[in-house]
Amino acid sequence: MTTTNASSAAAQTARARTVEGEFDYIVIGAGTAGCVLANRLSQDRDVSVLLLEAGGKDDYHWIHVPVGYLYCIGNPRTDWLYKTCPEPGLNGRVLSYPRGRVLGGSSSINGMIYMRGQREDYDAWARVTNDPSWSWDAVLPVFKRSEDHHGGANQWHGAGGQWRVEKQRLKWKILETFSHAAQETGIPATDDFNRGDNCGVGYFDVNQRHGIRWNASKAFLRPAMGRPNLTIITGAHTERLVFDGKRCVGVEYRGNEVDYIAKAKCEVILSAGAVNSPQLLELSGVGNGARLQDLGIDVVQDLRGVGENLQDHLQLRMAYQVRGVRTLNTTSAHWWGKLVIGLQYLLLQSGPMSMAPSQLGAFAKSDPADQSITRPDLEYHVQPLSLERFGEPLHRFNAFTASVCHVRPTSRGSIHIGSPDPHAPPLIAPNYLSTDYDRHVAANALRLTRRIVAAPALARYSPQEILPGMQFQTEEELQRAAGNVGTTIFHPVGTCRMGTTDDPAAVVDTRLRVIGVEGLRVVDASVMPVITSGNTNSPTLMIAERASEMIRADRRAQRSTMSNEPTPAVSTPMSVA
C-alpha cells in the first residue's frame, strides 16, 4: 500500500499533468462509502485500487474523542466549511453545512449514531427503482454482515463485522425523566431502534469502541492498509473526471501544487458524498446540458437529475431551562468540573467526553390522529445541555435541548456548481420548509414537544421554554418559529438518485452505474431516491457494501466473457495534455 500526502491549490488554467499511474479502480472520496469500497475491492489481490481523498489523515486527536465533534465541525482541517444559500423557509438565514474532509469523511465528525431507518424506507426504494434487491428484506443481511453489535448476533443484528455498535457509556437524570415524560405522552419505550420499526423512546446505540469514536477509516481502511494493491493519496483534490467519448477513463486531481492524472482500466467510482459527487459530475460535463453550456462546460452526458432531489432532515431546536437537576451546562461551568470530566475520560473513557452529541432518541407520529401517517415521521435528539447556537458557549443555567426533525420531508432542494472552477464551493439550496405539508408537520412537531415537556414526569423540574419561546402559539407563529430555530442535522442525500434507466430524473441505475456513460458509478448517500427515516451514515455504509458486491460480480462476469473471446489488440495509451 502506498500513501501520499498532498495539499490543494486554487490555480485553474490549462496545464500539463503528471501521470500518477493506471489502476483497475479509482475511488474518489475516502468517506464512509469510499473506505468500504477500498477495503472490499482490494480484497481481490489481482486488481489495483487508487483511493483519492481531498482531506488529510484522521490523526487529529479530537476526531477520536466523542465530544471532539465540537472541534472538528467548522475546522478546515476536518470540514469543507460549506454554507447554504439564503433559505426562504428559514426566514432568509444562511446555514453552515458541515461535511467531513478527512479520512473517514463525515463518519469522522458526525454524531456516531447507529441508525438504519425503517423497513418502509427500503421497500419504497424497491418500488421506485423496480428492483427488489433494495427492499428491507434484501438489505437487512447486508447491514448485519458489516455489524459488530454489542448484543451479539441475532435475528436483527450481526457480530464480528467491522462496524462496531455499542451502548453509550453514561446516562443523565434529565434524559431519563424526558423518556418517562414521552412515555406518559404515548410514545412507548424501546431498547432498539434498528429492527425496521423505530417507534419509541430510548438511548441511541453508537459507533464507538470503548468510548472512542469508531469511524469508517478505523473500521475499513486501516485493516486494508497493508495490501500492496491499494494506494491511498490524501490531500488530493479531484478536479475533473476524464472521458474518452462516453467512457470515463480516469481522473484529474491536484496535490502539493502539482497536477496529476490517474487512469482507470475498469471503473471510476465517485464516493464524494451528496455535495461533492454532483459537483464533480457537473464539472466533468455530466448534468443538465443547458446549465453546463451556460458555464462553458462541454457536455458529455445530458442528465437533468444531477444535483436535484436534495433531501435533508431539518432539526428544530427547542431548549428548556430546568430547576433541581444538573445538566452539562453547570457540570462543566467551572475549572474543577472540567478537570473531573477530563479525568473520567482519561482513566475510564466515560463521562461527558464520551458523549455522542445526542444521547436519548425518540420516534413518534407528528399527529397521531392523522390516519394518513402510518409510521413515525418525527425523530428526537435529546441532549442534557443548551446553547444559543452551535459553536457558542453553553448557557450558565441548567437546561436541556430537544431537537426534533421531520424524517420524511416533502421539500426538495438542489446542489449545483456556479462556476467551472473545481475549487469554488457549490451552490447548496436545501429549500427547507418549502411545502405546506412540511410547514404543518414542523408546527405539529413543536406542539408535540410541548406536550411531552408538560407531562407529569418533568413537572418537578419546572421546565421553562427558552427556545423558540412560548410567544409562538398559532399555526402561523409556530411555522415562523420553525424557520427561526431550524438547522441542518447533517443528513443530505439524493442528489444523484438511482432509478430506472427510462426515468428522466434518475442519475444512476440500480447497480449505481451513471446512466448514459460507461466506466463510472456513484456510490454514496447521493444515490438514495428517498431519504431514510433516521440518521444516514449507516445506510450509506450498506449502499457501499452492496456496490462492492456488484462491482466484483461484474468484473468476474467480464473476465468470464473475455476468457471465451479472442485476445483484443492492445489499445494506444491516452495522451496527457
What is the typical, i.e. mean, pLDDT? Answer: 92
Q: How many structural domains can be distinguished in the coordinates?
A: 2
The CATH superfamily name of the largest domain is FAD/NAD(P)-binding domain
Radius of gyration: 24 Å
Fraction of residues in H or I helices: 25-40%
- Helix tally equals 15
Q: Could you say what the CATH architecture of the largest domain is?
A: 3-Layer(bba) Sandwich
Q: How much of the polypeptide forms β-strand, as a percent range?
A: 15-25%
Please explain how this structure is put together.
The protein is of the alpha/beta class and 577 residues long. It has two domains: 1-7 and 16-79 and 99-131 and 209-307 and 493-557, FAD/NAD(P)-binding domain (3-Layer(bba) Sandwich); 169-203 and 314-406 and 431-491, Cholesterol Oxidase, domain 2. Helices cover 26% and strands 21% of the residues. The protein has 15 helices and 25 strands. Strands 1, 2, 3, 11, 12, 13, 14 and 25 form an eight-stranded mixed β-sheet that branches. Helix 5 (136-146) packs across helix 15 (537-562) and helix 12 crosses helix 14 (475-485). The protein is globular. GO terms for molecular function: flavin adenine dinucleotide binding; oxidoreductase activity, acting on CH-OH group of donors. Keywords: FAD, Flavoprotein, Oxidoreductase. It comes from Paraburkholderia humisilvae.
Indicate the topology.
Layout: E1 2-5, E2 18-28, H1 32-41, E3 49-53, H2 61-64, H3 69-72, E4 82-83, E5 96-97, H4 119-129, H5 136-146, E6 147-149, E7 163-165, H6 173-184, E8 200-203, E9 208-209, E10 212-213, H7 216-221, E11 230-234, E12 237-244, E13 247-255, E14 258-270, H8 273-283, E15 286-287, H9 289-294, E16 301-302, E17 314-321, H10 328-331, H11 335-348, E18 360-364, E19 378-383, E20 399-406, E21 414-416, E22 427-429, H12 436-453, H13 456-459, E23 464-467, H14 475-485, E24 486-488, E25 520-522, H15 537-562
Parallel strand pairs: 1-11, 2-3, 2-14, 3-11, 6-7, 14-25, 15-16
Antiparallel strand pairs: 4-5, 8-18, 9-10, 12-13, 13-14, 17-20, 17-23, 17-24, 18-19, 19-20, 21-22
